[in-house]
glutamine--tRNA ligase
Amino acid sequence: SAPEENEQDDPKLLAEHLATTGGKVVTRFPPEPNGFPHIGHAKSMGLNFGYAKAKGGICYLRYDDTNPEAEKPEYYKAIREAVAWLGHEPVAVTKASDYFEQMYAYAEQLILSGHAYVCHQNKAEIVESRQKRTNSPWRDRPAAESLKLFRDMRKGKIGEGEATLRLKMDMQSDNPCMRDLIAYRVKFHEHPMAGDAWCVYPSYDFEHCIVDALENITHSLCTLEFGLRRESYHWLLKALGIYRPVVWEYSRLNITHVVVSKRKLRALVEDGFVDGWDDPRMPTLSGLRRRGYTPAAINKFVDLVGVTRTENLVRYELLEHCLREDLGNIAERRMVVLDPLEVIIANVDAVAPAAQTVAAASFPNAAEGTPEAAMTYPASFAAGKIYIEARDFRLNDSKKYFGLAPGKVVRLRYGPVVRAVANDVDAAGNVTSVTVEIVTDESTLTGKSKKPKAIHWVGWVSPTTPPAQVAVRNYGVLFKSENVAAAPDWRADVNENSRVDLVGYVPPVVLNDLKVPEKHLQFERVGYYVTDVKSNALNQCCELKATNALF
Ligand code: ATP
Ligand code: MG
Ligand code: MG
């Protein structure tokens, strides 16, 4: 069966193509290994792998590796890991560099067929003649001369910048991408995969369409900025007489408060604004992962954003919303106190010793009888001393305030109701400790006190030993502006306070949680956290609720 759509007007080429693909959709995700993949790449993966899957087709992971000076083995690795992490299964992993020999042969073929020539214009001259639509003085040199020079380029006899191979397209075209694009340039640079085999490398424009054709890609999906190159893409394949895929463009993903460009992300790393490509503030896939993002959350986000042909700026909150939806189901509940206020329980012995330790629910909303519902951890106030958040006590009570205040009652989550009976205040007027009494008979509570609000807390280990401590990192947005691209100087827009290091006071169970890599926790009334794979800390994933409108 013929593909739904095809560019191919040559029946023989179409027949060959169909014989190879069996009429299946074939796509590719083609990253350049010049940096760590970011959330924009997740969109590209979602489209390429997703479209192939939806159509019962196949998708390649193909490294677009023809700029050896920018590409590194660690980037190939990070890309491979990210693809697998998001659950995509490439039919094969290929590299543009696998086809260097074939591409070189095509280049010689183009010289002989009058479609390419060796040119000695330098960069500035090329730019100028493209603008003025004037031909290079070498455009009409004999093919034999170009062939000899091109072979000399390959042999390393011609210096960098002294010659390029250019496509003989149409210098009068209104499309600048048709004005004799560069096909090959000399680079005395080892290639991360091909080693020192080459000193001429194909350009993106030359390589991309050829590899698409060689891999029998049916739909070559790319971002809108490549729209102008569609004409040259098909021109070159036609000149070579090889199969022509359909090209579809879609808009790049942009998100508020971050940059989604490897160049800028690299600068953040190199200039020390962040601690590496996988810093939890980075919109790289490895950064998002350390921040606690799950594949489900990212894939959901990519789906929601969808495919458009207009440039837009998606709100960061949408990404967080997708994360919350997933973590709400998988994160075990714990209690943490980040800003401690000491609370003394004056009458702790009024409660039987066995009742001084309560079973806190790991999944309070789980349906009864499910394994989740059975998961609890102990929370103890047996030492007669606990921490609560400083914000949960106020000297002056008010109507909309649900915390503790002098004379007022609250419930210690999973535990008893307590009433504030005294407090200490330092010279500056700050409350330094509160004394409470357990309400032993809750039936005595009347009016509003009948249903006191519950606050989170953590018990001391003994009257002299505070609770366990863990390192906690809270994060703010990486850039102050919503639209970073519109900021006059994107570097000056970096939020210097995007990471806040805190100490969390926790029940002992959290020390075990820390031993589990990438474990998600919901600290009740505080936020979602994840164990950091590179340290003994907990990284904040997001707050419990959106603080802004979503769209
Ligand atoms: P960057 O400018 O960040 O380097 P790129 O386009 O050069 O991005 P590649 O690694 O060459 O990145 O791209 C791999 C694929 O991912 C391409 O098809 C590219 O169009 C797509 N892609 C890259 N960034 C985005 C984005 N922000 N939104 C959607 N697709 C993207
Ligand atoms: Mg690129
Ligand atoms: Mg780019």
About this structure: Residues 255-332+470-542 form a domain with the Glutamyl-tRNA Synthetase; domain 2 fold (CATH 1.10.1160.10). The mean pLDDT is 95. The chain has three domains: 11-250, 255-332+470-542, 338-466.
